[in-house]
TrEMBL record:
It comes from Bemisia tabaci. One of its GO terms (cellular component) is actin cytoskeleton. This is Kaptin. GO terms for molecular function: actin filament binding. Residues 160-172 have a biased composition (Acidic residues). Residues 160-181 are annotated as: Disordered.
Length: 323
């Protein structure tokens, strides 16, 4: 007998009387969508034309299914993915990972999918006309564990520099700076049996500018990854989580990715996240393993020194600001 499969969407339509999140209300508001396929990967992004969230669910039928909410009835229904996301139609096999960014002031969309047949598809789409501008394909020659878009700079978008020689207005300068920065989007693709690879500047170079991440044990299985500025220098490093109970860190030095260190953990790394759990303005590295959760935090003294070095106190305590 074939088992039943559902997509369960939990929501809290209204806060409680104290205007606080209530877990009981969340459990009581479950919307169930019956599926006729085995679900593989769940992802969400924004449908900008309708200003709403769209859920993507890849399945054993080698399709990506899209679900949107009918606000009037508070129900979800499957929509035609070709109407709004033509780049996600007819993937080559079962989709294992999806990453989508809206760029160029939300006029373009960069979509990446990693499939079970070891292929990666990168698509650049003009949103208003729903037109595919560019498509790149790459064969990883091994099972894909994740695809992840990222900027090298941790401070994107950079502020426009105030120069007397620059005839642009501040808004024009910021727009130009942002557009130039968005040409430098990179893509990390990790594999469970082969070397992980980074594609630099994918919107302009596609898959041609690729860098394989070196490692002492090329046969280790990489199960997860995260891009984070772990040394607080303004540029992001790559951290891979391995089956061999290790975190492996890389840094972009002299136009190449170099191995800068490893650290052991209690068990195989399942997933990682870089977020501010303590709400102190500095992100922590959260590592989920088969035996528990590790949280790595920056030394507060180092953070303080970095903060002092980045602040121009002469401007803060100038005569004009004190008047």
């Amino acid at each position: 007998m074939e088992s039943e499969k559902y997509l369960n969407i939990y929501s809290e339509p209204e806060p409680d009387e104290n205007n606080e999140f209530n877990i009981d209300n969340l459990a009581n508001n479950c919307l169930m969508i019956e599926l006729d396929f085995v679900p593989y990967f769940l992802y969400h992004t924004f449908l900008l034309s309708q200003n709403q969230v769209v859920w993507f669910l890849s399945g054993s039928d080698s399709k990506i299914h899209a679900y949107t909410e009918d606000v009037s009835t508070h129900t979800y229904h499957e929509t035609d993915i070709a109407e709004h996301f033509p780049e996600l139609v007819s993937p080559s096999s079962i989709v294992l990972w999806i990453d989508i960014w809206h760029i160029h002031q939300n006029t373009r969309r960069l979509s990446v999918i990693g499939c079970e047949d070891w292929s990666v598809k990168i698509s650049l789409v003009e949103i208003e006309s729903n037109t595919l501008l560019s498509v790149w394909n790459y064969d990883c020659d091994g099972p894909i564990s994740r695809v992840q878009l990222f900027y090298l700079s941790n401070y994107f978008p950079p502020d426009a520099e105030d120069s007397s020689e620059n005839c642009e207005t501040e808004d024009e300068g910021e727009k130009k700076s942002k557009e130039e920065g968005e040409e430098n989007i990179n893509l990390l693709v990790t594999s469970t049996i082969n070397q992980s690879v980074v594609f630099m500047n994918v919107t302009t170079s596609g898959t041609s500018e690729r860098h394989f991440l070196p490692y002492k044990d090329s046969y280790d299985a990489i199960l997860s990854s995260v891009c984070a500025d772990i040394d607080l220098d303004g540029e992001q490093e790559i951290i891979l989580g391995a089956y061999s109970q290790e975190l492996i860190a890389y840094k972009y030095i002299n136009s190449r990715w170099e191995l800068i260190g490893t650290r052991g953990v209690s068990s195989s790394v399942l997933c990682m996240a870089h977020l501010d759990l303590s709400q102190d303005g500095v992100r922590e590295l959260v590592v989920v393993t088969m035996r528990g959760i590790h949280i790595f935090q920056h030394d507060p003294n180092i953070v303080l020194e970095k903060l002092k070095a980045s602040i121009d106190f002469s401007k803060i305590f100038s005569a004009e600001t004190l008047m």
